[in-house]
Design goal:
Layout lengths: L5 H5 L7 H15 L8 H17 L2 H10 L1 H7 L14 H14 L16 E7 L1 H6 L1 E12 L15 E2 L8 E6 L2 E6 L8 E2 L12 E12 L8 E4 L15 E7 L6 E3 L2 E9 H6 L1 E7 L2 E7 L8 E4 L15 E8 L6 H16 L6 H17 L2
Parallel strand pairs: 1-9, 11-15
Antiparallel strand pairs: 2-7, 3-6, 4-5, 8-9, 10-11, 12-13, 14-15
Helix pairs in contact: 2-3, 4-5
Length: about 375
Amino acid sequence: MAKRDYYEVLGVARNASEADIKKAYRRAAQKYHPDRNPDDAEAVAKFKEAKEAYEILSSAQKRAAYDQFGHAGVDAAAGGGAGPGAGFGSGSFSDIFGDVFGDIFGAGRAGGGANVYRGADLRYNLELSLEEAVAGTTVKIRVPTHVTCKTCNGSGAKKGTSPVTCTTCGGRGQVRIQQGFFSLQQTCPQCHGKGSVIKEPCGTCHGQGRVKEQKTLSVKIPAGVDNGDRIRLAGEGEAGENGGPPGDLYVQIKVRPHPIFTREDSDLYCEVPISFTTAVLGGELDVPTLEGRVKLKIPPETQTCKMFRLRGKGVRPVHGGAVGDLLCRVEIETPVHLTRRQKELLEEFQRSMEEGQGKHSPRTSSWFDGVKKFFDDMRF
């Protein structure tokens, strides 16, 4: 049977790059490998065919001969021994294809040694008042964490002794296991990846190289922080293992509710109760800001829920930008616990309002006109 074109076997163009050819062979080898297709003769044949195609096209010299003379060129160079079944199951597999499968199965990795682990990151929830968040402050916090043992300097071994090289893995922290075609690497079961074992553990850390303790840190809170903001303290997390770097500490900000103000981004909001007479006649009020009292002028005939803006009395954002505003919403307070005389005066005032035929309360008159029209249209 005539051989198929090698480019067709791998499903690549004739001008395909070396990387494209390698990827194509990887896909074919994973799909048709005998270990994945036991007792499947067709899959075995396709695997051999792909293997042969890759062996030729991955070599610049062989590929050039194949491109010029076709199968005759490479068959002649190989002395006729490069047929579809040549080399299968021989030791040449890892030599030819180790670079393809090394990153998948761990073959071809050099070196080794103890596994080094970065320390865990920590989170600390910090509550602040609104005033502290807006102005910025410095606070001291106590954080429970693992730190390097000072008795053994992190080695885990008793003072005066040292960890010894693991005899199982030879200090590499990993062992190789042969499974059929492939050589796999896994963590050494004796030293658990450290590459060494401790014969005499440190009495302080019991061989862990780390101890748990409370440490006090001074945290500078920048002005303008808000709920959900995080402050990163590099290297203040847990100590690493086997000489690994420490993790980081993240301070999570939570701002307590304020009795007067609420915050939205860089703006502050507050509700200001005013009397009925102030709403009607106008006046001035003292309103609070985070910087002290300011005068708020209430114009005559102010309606409830009217919003007044005090520019620049809000918050400067933590990442820069213009200072926000303070928005005061007035709420007209209905008087309570009236005396008899006060009620008489209000009744007299109400009669005078009715004589105005609605000009004093245009919204009320308009609303009642709308209600009347609604009932007329519905014909109840």
